Fold:
Amino acid sequence: MARPPIFPLADARTVADDGDDASFCSTCAFSSACLAEGVGKRELRELHVLVDHVGPIAAGNHVFRKGDPFDAIAAVRAGTVKTYVNDADGHERVLGFHLPGEVIGLDGIDGERYPCNAVALDTVMLCRFSFQRMSSLAARLPGLQRHLFRLLSRGIGTAVQLGNDATADQRMAAFLLGLSQRLATRGFSATRFRLTMPRTDIGSHLRLAPETVSRVLKRFQDDGLVDIDRREVELLDVEALDALAAPVLSR
Amino acid sequence: MARPPIFPLADARTVADDGDDASFCSTCAFSSACLAEGVGKRELRELHVLVDHVGPIAAGNHVFRKGDPFDAIAAVRAGTVKTYVNDADGHERVLGFHLPGEVIGLDGIDGERYPCNAVALDTVMLCRFSFQRMSSLAARLPGLQRHLFRLLSRGIGTAVQLGNDATADQRMAAFLLGLSQRLATRGFSATRFRLTMPRTDIGSHLRLAPETVSRVLKRFQDDGLVDIDRREVELLDVEALDALAAPVLSR
DNA sequence: CGCTTCTTTGACGAAATTCAAAGCGTGTGG
DNA sequence: CCACACGCTTTGAATTTCGTCAAAGAAGCG
Structure:
């Protein structure tokens, strides 16, 4: 499990980009999002030539590790990436689960090193962007610059969300709904999905013991809010979950 | 207490910038930081002409409110700004205390509205930057763009910090040390300083009841870690505090 | 000086962690 | 194909930390 990370491409299996099919990277989230920001299709091609398509990365392999020199950000194309840190006692703290369309590595810009570890939870495909080259391009493409500012700003918002005080039930409800919504945005079912991470990771992410995760999910099940079999989830009563999660979201 | 916010300058007492003294805004954190990023002095002047010097803002007045249209970020020049949100139950949650040299408003870029409230805890002076104009400038000044990316990235990092799991003692130690370090960076004493916020706010920030804040501080005092009189703090045993705070910081 | 706001203190209670142990699935090797 | 081992999950009981409630004390302010 101490294999080297995939970044910085020293040992990566990289799929070269054809560069001539703009829709090829549509799941990168950059293409569509940048179009929405007013980046023209011609300019979009400029962005695509600086993309490395990375993967597949098997579950358990690291994309990057805390302390690695920062040189790129990446959009998840398929699979789930978990970011985490270890505190001084060695306890793992999960910062986030990153689904297709989401971007990882932004927090590494400041310190020029990645401040956390990123590991694949299942088979992962990535689009890797040299940050230096993307910055240069952003200076010429206002839409791209705007998109990057937005992504970073959003990153603050999502990080802030995690700091909330709330009961175990409320945090869990918010977690399930958050997953649901993010999956729905990417075209997956909003009500049936698979938890790609173990209970331990969910707990670490929500500041709960894994036992508590198990108990809360059981109670949700008993109360008819969800149907859970192992890692398969079906949301049965979104209304009730919403009501539970309400205090987590700011007014 | 329902007075209108200072932004967007509708009602603000704004001090016009002379524009001809680059050192005038040295405490904005932008000047020195941007110089470090390779922005030349001539270019720096371009940045200064788009600065509004705002203030003084009296304690209790809002700089902006959640939902206000986002159009500017601001660097604190003097005083302390508290950012906070109210959850669905009306409970206040303090996101941060912003000291001189620190920047507020970055989290508003994404949604085009400020996602939180910002209020002065004491007499506050600000440098206000039109974000639109700063973005345009950033396209021409790579150093400025880099600085903005860094600021945003750092914002993610500090927000992530708050999500930590830790005991009340550990969080409080980390909070005191964090304040100490940030004040020291700005030239203030690292060991003696004033808490500009009530216990309630500290608690809300650290996810603790104000009573717990009081008890923890008392214990720190009894154990000789700090000397606290009302809101005046002296750190007596930084080593011990560091040891306490260790699990909060990622390894 | 009297009000308000903030802070401290104590007693109690609740939510979640910890500890311990038993199920359950999956994959592997005999 | 089955048995076994390993990791993950569930469950129960005891413990602990912190929040809640109540009230008194202190400081600042008009």
Confidence is low (pLDDT under 50) at residues 9-24 of chain A. Residues 198-200, 210-211, 213-215, 218, 230 of chain A lie near DNA strand D (CB under 10 Å from a C1'). Chain A is about 35% helix and 20% strand.
